[in-house]
From TrEMBL:
Name of the protein this chain belongs to: Flap endonuclease 1
InterPro entries in the cross-refs: 5-3_exonuclease_C_sf (IPR036279), Flap_endonuc (IPR023426), HhH2 (IPR008918), PIN-like_dom_sf (IPR029060), XPG-I_dom (IPR006086), XPG/Rad2 (IPR006084), XPG_CS (IPR019974), XPG_DNA_repair_N (IPR006085)
Subcellular location: Mitochondrion; Nucleus, Nucleolus; Nucleus, Nucleoplasm
Domain XPG-I: 146-218
Co-factor note (free text): Binds 2 magnesium ions per subunit. They probably participate in the reaction catalyzed by the enzyme. May bind an additional third magnesium ion after substrate binding.
GO molecular function: 5'-3' exonuclease activity; 5'-flap endonuclease activity; DNA binding; magnesium ion binding; manganese ion binding; RNA-DNA hybrid ribonuclease activity
Gene3D superfamilies reported in the protein's UniProt record: 5' to 3' exonuclease, C-terminal subdomain (1.10.150.20), 5'-nuclease (3.40.50.1010)
UniProt GO cellular component terms: mitochondrion; nucleolus; nucleoplasm
GO biological process: base-excision repair; DNA replication, removal of RNA primer
Similarity field: Belongs to the XPG/RAD2 endonuclease family. FEN1 subfamily.
Length: 384
């Protein structure tokens, strides 16, 4: 679920934190991608005649097809993806997981009714609601990524928290996910719609964490409390408090603890044994692997093993897989111009000199870009 209503709240109260971009503008960027979210999207979207793709032995392959082609698309656009897989869910998430199970059970009952009635539209609808990412789906994609030469990370707990840690440690530029709680975990940049298909014609939405705090005039801990009020995966929220009321209460009282002392409990029911403090602590101190211990390497694809895996084991077209491998190799071997902003970093800026330093930096970048263009030159930097 992520954080309920956060995207709309930011659009209403902190619009400057968001901007829209095209995928080509992320050339040269390393991006940590929530693997489970991507796999779920592929299981939902990659279908034939309303059903998931299957191998000859009846194994689902929609997630493999989606992962293969979507990763190639990012590589062709100069993005260096690293996929992050969920570890064990935190104990506090058990309530949310139970709710999801109840919804799947209900969808199963509705599917049986639709099947009995021969209602093809509802059969497809409820089949999609029953989609769940399994351990086998994850293992299939890990094997694929290894053969493609794309790194992945196994998080000890929540993937979004590990992604955010990689961003904060400057291992990657941003987190690519649809779940807004990557921001609650402190990711400085969040990219939504990065892994959507081109057919959907949706621009990538880039959200900046520091601009959120600046525009909302909140501290990190106050923003976490706001997200808990909105509704997160780890505890219930106060009934009757929507996004607008939540931001008003946080700005007025600054913490949930103070809010509870002033709120009208007759109008707003406080959850019994509300574990907001535990949820707050989970966002503040998530269980993650130290990013300094993670070595991200992009390598050449193992062509023979990739063909054997995709074609012999999973029954995909050999011509299409070979064509995909050529695209990966071309992206790997091509000599392309790197990001100019990677060559200029401004450190140790005081408030009195900040504007002058920024102007100087922009001048250097523009001058260098013009020089490269006039010489028709390229920087000999490999994509990987």
């Amino acid at each position: 679920m992520g954080i309920k209503g956060l995207s709309k709240l930011l659009g209403d109260f902190a619009p400057s934190c968001m901007k829209e971009n095209e995928i080509k503008n992320y050339f040269g960027r390393k991006v940590a991608i929530d693997a489970s979210m991507s796999i779920y999207q592929f299981l939902i979207a990659v279908r034939q005649d309303g059903s998931q793709l299957m191998s000859e032995d009846g194994e689902t392959t929609s997630h493999i097809m989606g992962m293969f082609y979507r990763t190639i698309r990012m590589l062709e656009n100069g993005i260096k993806p690293v996929y992050v897989f969920d570890g064990k869910p935190p104990e506090m998430k058990s309530g949310e997981l139970e709710k999801r199970k109840e919804k799947r059970d209900e969808a199963q009952k509705e599917l049986e009714k639709a099947t009995e009635a021969g209602d093809s539209e509802n059969i497809e609808k409820f089949n999609r609601r029953l989609v769940k990412v399994t351990k086998q789906h994850n293992e299939d994609c890990k094997e694929l990524l290894k053969l493609m030469g794309v790194p992945y990370v196994e998080a000890p707990c929540e993937a979004e928290a590990q992604c955010a840690a990689l961003v904060k440690a400057s291992k990657v530029y941003a987190v690519g996910t649809e779940d807004m709680d990557a921001l609650t975990f402190g990711s400085t940049v969040l990219l939504r719609h990065l892994t959507f298909s081109e057919a959907r014609k949706m621009p990538i939405k880039e959200i900046h964490y520091n601009r959120i705090l600046d525009e909302l005039k909140l501290s990190r801990d106050e923003f976490i409390d706001l997200c808990i009020l909105l509704g997160c995966d780890y505890c219930e929220s106060i009934k009757g408090i929507g996004p607008k009321r939540a931001i008003e209460l946080i700005k007025q009282h600054r913490t949930i603890d103070t809010i509870l002392k002033h709120i009208d409990t007759k109008k707003h029911t406080i959850p019994e044994d509300w574990m907001y403090k535990e949820a707050r602590r989970l966002f503040q101190e998530p269980e993650v692997t130290d990013p300094t211990e993670i070595d991200l390497k992009w390598t050449d694809p193992d062509e023979d093993k990739l063909i054997e895996y995709m074609c012999t084991q999973k029954n995909f077209s050999e011509d299409r897989i070979k064509n995909g491998i050529k695209k990966i190799s071309k992206a790997r071997s091509g000599t392309t111009q790197g990001r100019l902003d990677g060559f200029f970093t401004v450190t140790g800026i005081t408030s009195s000199t900040k504007k002058r330093k920024v102007i100087k930096q922009e001048f250097l970048i523009n001058f260098t870009a013009g020089l490269f263009e006039s010489l028709n030159s390229t920087l000999f930097l490999n994509l990987y």
